[in-house]
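Protein in question kept in full:
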Amino acid sequence: MSSSPAVPNRHLPGFSAPAVGFEEPFAMLEACHERVQRTLALLERLRDHVRQHGADGNARQAARDVLRYFDIAAPLHHEDEELHVFPALLAQATPGMRALVERLQQDHVAMAADWAAARRPLLALAEGHEQSFSEGDGVVLDRFAGRYADHIRTEEDQAYPAALSGAEPAALASMGREMARRRGAG
């Protein structure tokens, strides 16, 4: 496994993107989704690598990168949505928006549980305790990646456009400042 642009930032994963800043919070949220997708792609490449080469140093480092991203950046991203996107959708007070928010909130709970299960084999591999992923590990990792992919599609196709449609510039600026503050960037 070689280093590539798809490998998450070695500092604080999910924190910075060259063209996106907190002054555009919805662009930042979408950039986080891109990093999630890149990290999930890294996870898939890691699985292929382990099948072919075992848990060598490159595999252990890739596992650490995946762990770091989903331990640090993903919870911050979910918190962004819980604090800013979901309330904006609920303010629209339509049954469809309430159902959408409930579904996305349930996804966050399920994704946290999926991550807890997926984290175990990744940590074991990263620490050198395991040399491969079991068939059961594969099922857990597939479920984790699949749920994230579906969740991102729903947010980008439905939730973000609806929340952004009624957002005032002052509210967006406040949202961006709060997101930066929680990450120690503001």
Summary: Residues 2-18 have pLDDT under 50 and may be disordered. DSSP finds five helices and no strands in the chain.
